[in-house]
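Sequence dictates fold. Next comes a concrete instance:
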Amino acid sequence: MPRLIASVVPVWVLALAGAVIVGVLAAPSLTWLPIVLAVCVLVTFAVQLAVARKEGLVTRMIASIGGAVVIVGLATAILAVARLG
């Protein structure tokens, strides 16, 4: 379990940081959020290569990318609602 957390949480932190940066610097435009998600996917692959363990690879990747999708999705919803109001 610690290996799962150690390889998943950095991607989630990156997704959150990217969403906040997009929200602050490019608030009217949401076009940078898919780029944040793409970077998270690439970082997920890099982190999993660094872990160098076959067991649980799919589970770790699903957790990393799934969490990043949820974080970026919530950021998109929040920024879209803020944009309307």
